[in-house]
Write a structure and sequence with these properties.
This protein is mainly α. It has helices at residues 27-34, 37-45, 59-72, 76-85, 87-92, 108-115, 118-129, 133-141. α2 packs antiparallel against α7. The protein is globular, with a radius of gyration of 23 Å.
Length: 174
């Protein structure tokens, strides 16, 4: 079962424990503004067809937590702890106020990954990039010729020290 979420509060309405406001220039606040959460939620909600069972975690929390984990290169336990410690990340995940208790447990990430598989993440990435399957087909039929010249004309310097040991050189020597 899935229940749609309310609209995100503005960055100035987010309640912090120190009665201050979040910085609108923070990277997590900026990311929260540009990601099309409604489309992601529609894609995520389509996976839940029944009306039985517990209500699923919101799409923004599920996808957002995996996004945070990938961006910061964290393990499940570290990511859950980081989410609990960072009000900016909690805002990014759709919360309206700071919570000191972790909103997700490390084991929840396993369920998020089961629900949002690789093809689901690819679809969400397409949404984020504004790419549809139709756009890809049009590009294949009308490829643009590469530009010639430009600012990248220069000298390419190759370093042979990166070749594997024992790899034959172009003159046949080792």
């Amino acid at each position: 079962m899935y229940q749609e979420q309310e609209k995100q509060v503005s960055v100035f309405e987010f309640t912090t424990p120190w009665n201050g406001h979040l910085d609108p220039e923070n990277r997590w606040v900026k990311l929260a503004e540009i990601i099309p959460w409604i489309e992601i939620e529609q894609e995520y909600a389509s996976k839940f067809t029944g009306f039985k069972g517990n209500v699923a975690k919101p799409a923004r929390l599920a996808y957002g937590a995996l996004f945070v984990q990938a961006m910061l290169d964290l393990r499940d336990r570290e990511c859950a702890q980081t989410i609990a410690e960072n009000p900016y990340i909690q805002y990014f995940l759709g919360f309206s106020e700071y919570q000191s208790a972790p909103p997700v447990s490390p084991s929840t990430f396993v369920y998020f990954r089961k629900r949002i598989k690789a093809h689901g993440l690819a679809r969400i990435n397409e949404i984020l990039c504004g790419i549809s399957q139709d756009d890809d087909d049009d590009d294949d039929n009308n490829p643009e010729p590469p530009e010639e010249g430009g600012d990248n004309d220069g000298t390419l310097i190759l370093d042979a020290t990166c070749a594997p040991e024992g790899y034959p050189l172009s003159d046949g020597s080792i």
